[in-house]
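Sequence only, no structure available. Ideas?
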Amino acid sequence: MEKAMHQNHGIGYAEYNQCLHTRLQVEEDREKNHRESLQLIDQLQRQVHG
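Reply:
I predicted one. Tokens follow.
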């Protein structure tokens, strides 16, 4: 988990846990990535089934 956290967000899990501002930023980034992924899936499904 530590390696993935660092690769994806450039910070370690300890820093994520210690700093609320950092944690909120990481969670905002995760939410944004999730929304973008859902949009991509929707676009691909429309192309396949369109």
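The radius of gyration is 15 Å.
Hope that gets you unstuck.
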